Structure formats: C-alpha cells, structure tokens
Amino acid sequence: MSLPKGFLVGAATAAHQVEGNNTNSDYWLQEHMPHTGFAEPSGTACDHYHRYEEDIKLLADAGLNTYRFSVEWARIEPEEGRYDEQEIAHYRDVIRCCKDHGVEPMVTLLHFTSPVWLIRKGGWAAESTIEDFRRYAIYVTKQLGSELKYICTINEANMGLQIAAISKRYQLMAEQARKAAGKQSEGKVQVGMNFSKMMENAKFAAMENMQAFGSPQPPLFISAKTPETDALIFRAHRAAADAIKALYPQIKVGITLSLHDLQALPGGEPYVRAGWDEEFRHYLPWIQNDDFLGVQNYTRTLYGEGGQLPAPEGAELTQMNYEFYPEALEHVIRRVHEDFRGDLIVTENGVAVADDSRRVEFIHRALAGVERCLADGLPVKGYMYWSLLDNFEWQKGYSMTFGLIAVDRQTFRRTPKESLSVLGEYARETAL
Ligand code: BGC
Fold it and tell me: Are strands 292-297 and 414-416 parallel, antiparallel or unpaired?
C-alpha cells in the first residue's frame, strides 16, 4: 500500500515559533516579564522571517509537496484597525516562494499568539473578539485568498479546556502536597518542587500581567476556558470561516483540534467517553459543515477506574514526556470519522526526540496507520509532520527537538535530518 496520487505530504510550522521578533504579540510580552513561566524568550527564533526561502527549498528538494505555516495577526494588524501592508506583502512572498518550488501553501490564521491590543481589550473572553477576528480573516483573505486552496482558521481551538483540566490537576497536587507537608520544611515535600517560590512567582506574575495587559490573568488564547469562552472561540471560527467562503467559495476552510487517543483500561470507559465528548464531540455543531477538519495528534492517554493513568511501566518517553506511540494517529482518525463525515487532514503529528532514527520509526508507523485508514476508504487527504524545523516550543523554549531540520542556535545554519528525506520518499509516491 502506498499513499494515493495527489495526497498532501508536508510539514508544519507556526509563525511565533520560527519567525523571530514577534514583538507586538502577547507571548513576546509574557516571555520578557521578570517572573515569566517561559524557560527562555523566543528572540530571533529560527529567523525564518528572513530565511523562509531556504527552508521552503529544503522542504521542496526533499520531495514534500505542502507547507503549512501561520500568518501572524500581531504583525499584520499591530494596532487595532491598522493593517501593515509590508507584513501582508511578506506573506504574499512566502506563498509565491512555495508556488515557485511546486509546494502547496496551507495557511493558518491564528496559531496561539494574538496582538497585545486584542488581549488588552478583553482578548479571548470578550464578545468583540469574534468581530475582530472576522475582520482580520477578511483582510487576509482579500489580500492572499486568490493564491490559496487551504485555510485553517484557528489552531487547536480546543486547547483551552485541556489547559483548564491540567491546571486543575496541578492545583490539586499543590493542595495535597501542602497538606502533606504540614509544619515540615517544604524542601522535604518532593524533590524539585518549591511551592513558596511558585506562590511568590504567581503573585509577581499577576502584577506584571496587570501592568502589561490590564488584567492579572489575561485572557490569552491558551488560557484555561469556561464553557462560555470555549464556545466563543468556535463562534469566532464560524464567523471567519463563513466570511472566507463568501469571498472565495473554492478555498477549503477548516479548523484544527488537538486530539488524544483516549484509551480505557478496565473501569476507564466512562472517563474516555466524557473525555472524548469534551475534547471533540461537543464541538460538532460548529464544525460539521467545514470543508475539512485538521487532526493534530501526538500520543495516547490511558484511563483506569480512578481516572487518568501515567504511561505504562517501561514505555519509551519522548522529550515532552509523552509516550512514544505513533499508532495513536490511526485510532484518532478512525474515531473522529465516526462523527465527522467531511475530509480529514492531519495538520500536525510528530515527535520530540534527540535521536532522529526514532523520528524515522515514528513517521513510518504513523503513516502505516494512515494507509490502513485509506485502505478502509476513510477520507484522509493529507499528512503534515510537526515540525519542519527544530523551533521554539513555547514555555519549554528551544530544548525540544521536533524538527525534520536542525537549526544551529548561534549561526542559524540548517541541517536536514534523515527523517526529512524519509518523509520526502512518501511524498514522491503521491506525485501526479
Ligand atoms: C501545537 C504546536 C506545538 C506542538 C508540539 C501543538 O500543540 O500546535 O504549536 O509546538 O503541538 O508541542
């Protein structure tokens, strides 16, 4: 079995993680606060803003046929209502460069970062953001739409509920540890934890956020969500997607979701059912008429009778501490297809490992799963590996290496890895 002709095989990046100097964005501000949670600031990132041509050429020379990247709202609209023509021209050049190299550009409008002005106005908790995002989507589509076949409105639009669940777990852990500590010194609670420092930091971080954004807990895109603010993101998607389709009906428009392969051990079934409803099914009313759904998967999550379980004893873990489990992608595609009948594009799938031969293994096994789905007639149209480049992994900084291409942090020199050519081989099979 091989991938069908015309199947999209590519790699993905996000503006903030690769371009460098995204100075008007909320992340930039947070990275530079004295009590920031970021391991390091994004700085020049991979200098992709200036080196995109080299990167797209490497992608194309390896045989890949698609490049998924995001345009940066904070660059395009640095102040509310003022669009920067030079910045939109930059992205026009990136698209042109893709086409010159025979590569299909797939553009994401929002990949986690927002302009500072939007957050100061109430960000991803304010009704007005729906209209602001729609206006931005219309501007980008008017400027670039004639060159595009695929637009992802919002990356991992379901992230906020996952963050809410994680922060709840952390809070519980902190509570338990504080109780267990009693009057003992905190240092004895658990290796590597320093709760008084964390609490102290939280207080200062709140003050710094207040200064920067006018709120101690600014409503960022990735902030923990309530049912209302969760819905707001999907309403923004709907408004933008409908506006794009009205301008260019031929553009395929979709959203992307972060989806785990939720697996139940005996007794874990109710958790899996509830988890899948929360992670995926309750969004169906907003997305079921989209042209495609972007599936993004990295690993599986296990549940037992007491709730979520750690990775199995002895499992191989990635740099992110995820279980190395490429079969998760196939499982997620099959489960999504039970409810969502439109086309599916794997917009992200990848692994952070130092040893590239593990990445090669991951890609082979993940794509074997995609091929099995295709053999069963599932409408999978593409596979984008995350990521083209070793890049800025948000709060974890530059320590995670997801890339098909290594980037020297001093010289920015690119070194393609074996995995790039392996993925390229799959892509070559699909050439029309
Ligand atoms: C995000 C990327 C991120 C990747 C690896 C996805 O959640 O879309 O921005 O770098 O996962 O953690």
Answer: unpaired
